[in-house]
């Protein structure tokens, strides 16, 4: 059960088709007009991580949710999204326009002295939003227009040129002061709890013995959400009165009961798909929380 949006997911959701040779094109690059992909009645952008980088120029009034923070902006904003951080955005106006480009890390491999992830706007904890003055907006718009035109050309070295345009976007941003209005969401604890609950539920139901419950600890979820585990634990406890571990344990126990009662899988298979390394570990876990062994519960 995927918890990261892939390029394949992106194209299927937006265009209901895949570009040719997508799997072979390891460094994949593409560019779009925002209004061609996000209509006023389109599906909301899902809060999740992606397995690709994204740079967006978005006009209008918008709210970006980035990791455990939110950013409310009005006017042309250049946003940098990296694969390590989950995000989404909401438009607060009907007249939003803009551009975005997407690419894999391999698009820049061996072409840059420093890894892309170390650039200030892509670095962990970096500020990803840059509100653009009019002159810079015109410069950035022109760069995206050049990208769109180049993607349609048959110029032999067009991807080298496209890389240069992306690097120029990065340098435009570096010359602009990043937005300082990045703030803790007024209801950040409730929102991060909702995201945790969605990620937990998305792993269920277990439908085949080969499916596996992978996010099993508070640390696993914190890493997936790009927040500190203490912050996640505190948010969930303040919102629900229970610990992160309590929620995981309750859901795991509930699924274990369902599998024992409604499948003919053996105990080892159930143990494996619930993420236990050994059946004995599953036995101990189940007996601790249900006061019966898995076998005894199955034949009640």
What value does the Rg take, in angstroms?
23 Å
Q: Summarize model confidence as the mean pLDDT.
A: 85
Structural class determined from secondary elements: alpha+beta
Shape: elongated
User: In terms of per-residue confidence, which ranges show pLDDT below 50 for 5 or more consecutive residues?
Assistant: none
Placed side by side, the strands forming the largest sheet appear as 2-9-4-7-10
Order of helices and strands: EHEHEEEEEEEEHHEHHHHHHH
| Helical amount | 40-55%
Number of distinct helices: 11
| Count of beta strands | 11
Major sheet summary line: 5 strands, antiparallel
Strand content: 15-25%
Distance N to C terminus: 31 Å
Briefly characterize the structure:
This protein has 300 residues and is α+β, with helices and mostly antiparallel strands. 42% of the residues lie in helices and 16% in strands. The chain has helices at residues 7-15, 34-37, 134-151, 158-175, 188-202, 218-225, 229-240, 244-262, 267-273, 279-290, 294-298, and strands at residues 4-5, 29-33, 49-50, 53-58, 61-66, 69-74, 77-81, 87-91, 98-103, 129-131, 183-184.
